[in-house]
Design goal:
Largest sheet: 8 strands, mixed
Helix content: 55-70%
Number of strands: 8
Strand order of the largest sheet: 1-7-6-5-2-3-4-8
Shape: rod-shaped
Distance between the termini: 82 Å
Strand content: 5-15%
Structural class: alpha+beta
């Protein structure tokens, strides 16, 4: 007859609960048996061989019990402690490994503090991602520094070998979106908000977009690019490569806020990659410069027509003068910070 599984489980639990008591009972029984065998062999009148054998067995049992007691009292606690330490260490290693695997997919691999010019650590990390990538994607406001970086790196192999350079720039016709960008910038700088000040800043932001488009138009032969005009609110700036990205949240008034670097294996990279794909897919206008496409902008006349469509009434030469002034300001800032404008930054 077999006991049901529940009966076996109850028996195991009872035995485990009283394991130490069973061990003591077994040792006492073995000791008593050893003493009895020894006395039987020594005191009773038996054949010499039987007497010696019984006494030897009894003494062996007593000696075994004695050794077991000594080992249990002195050596076994040390063994158990070492074993427990080993198990605890293994459990900690496993926990750390799982913790790392779980949060590595969400945490940045680098954090670069805010500054007025790009810091050395950021420039080195940017160069590593750029040189191993086949594309450069950027999303932000007017893309002022991005266009300057492209203009300065036009002769660099790392830029010229890129298959795709895609920039998502704010649409200068999207007044509410422009207003949101201006509000955020003025509040970060703790500036006084007034209707005239806001409208004036909106015009400046539009002009910065036109100047960036002019810079990309003039780079079209050396560095073909595609611009996607978006109408998103000003939450972040993102620069994306094949194996990683740099993410900046607009939280302070510095020129270059804190920058986070994420690997392409992380969840934020996948999320912002999907977000940028959606921005390009639903762009209010797509402008290819120097690309072999039927609607690419190839001449100054075509570009002037585009500027008029976007609401710009300044002549192209005036925009080029503003571009040169902007680039000179950036070069001065880099030079004052000890950065060579000919390097990748």
């Amino acid at each position: 007859m077999t006991l049901p599984a529940s009966g076996n489980a109850d028996g195991v639990r009872i035995f485990a609960k009283y394991a130490r008591l069973w061990a003591v009972v077994v040792m006492l029984a073995a000791t008593v048996a050893g003493v009895l065998l020894t006395l039987w062999g020594l005191l009773f009148d038996l054949d010499q061989q039987w007497s010696t054998a019984l006494a030897a067995i009894g003494e062996s049992v007593i000696a075994s019990v004695f050794i077991y007691v000594m080992v249990s009292l002195f050596l076994d606690p040390i063994r158990q402690r070492l074993q427990a330490q080993e198990l605890a260490g293994y459990a900690i290693d496993v926990a750390h490994s799982q913790f790392q695997e779980r949060f590595e997919a969400s945490l940045p691999s680098g954090v670069f503090e805010s500054a007025d010019v790009p810091k050395l650590a950021f420039r080195e990390a940017f160069q590593v991602l750029l040189e191993s990538s086949t594309r450069y994607d950027s999303k932000g406001g007017a893309a002022e520094f991005a266009t300057f970086r492209l203009a300065q790196g036009v002769e660099k192999r790392a830029f010229r070998r890129l298959d795709q350079i895609r920039l998502c720039i704010i649409d200068p016709r999207a007044e509410e979106c422009l207003r949101a960008h201006v509000f955020m910038r003025l509040r970060e700088g703790r500036a006084t908000l007034s209707p005239d000040r806001v409208n004036n800043e909106i015009k400046k932001l539009q002009e910065r977009v036109y100047v960036s488009l002019t810079a990309l138009h003039d780079l079209r032969t050396a560095l073909p690019t595609t611009v996607y005009l978006h109408r998103d609110l000003p939450f972040f700036r993102c620069e994306m490569f094949d194996s990683g990205m740099f993410l900046t949240y607009y939280l302070d008034g510095t020129e270059y806020p804190e920058n986070l670097q994420f690997s392409s294996k992380t969840r934020p990279y996948r999320a912002y990659h999907a977000s940028m794909d959606m921005t390009r897919r639903f762009a209010s206008k797509i402008i290819p410069f120097g690309m072999e496409a039927s609607h690419s902008i190839e001449s100054d006349q075509e570009f002037s027509g585009l500027l008029t469509e976007l609401g710009c009434h300044k002549p192209l030469e005036a925009l080029r003068e503003l571009r040169d002034e902007r680039f000179d300001q950036f070069r001065t800032q880099l030079r004052e910070a000890g950065i060579d404008a000919q390097d990748i930054f």
